[in-house]
Structure prediction request, 84 residues.
Amino acid sequence: MYLLGIGIVLLLMKYLAIGPVAGWSWWLVLAPFALAVVWWTWADLSGYSKKKAMQKMDQRKADRIEKSRVALGLGTRKGTSKRR
Prediction:
């Protein structure tokens, strides 16, 4: 996502002729967009995106269970490992 933001800023600077970016080649200005496509392709093909989504779901589940335990008055499990 950072590459996309950098690309947008560079694109605006080039289009509006602001600063040293105005003199840069269009290839250099558009390079962050190409790098973002490469990153997203790698993340999808390697399973990185799926792994991060699963970690987020697992954390939400653990938080929901912990909240339920506290609401039921069973105490917290902060001191114990969450893995079994």
Notes: The chain is about 70% helix and 0% strand.
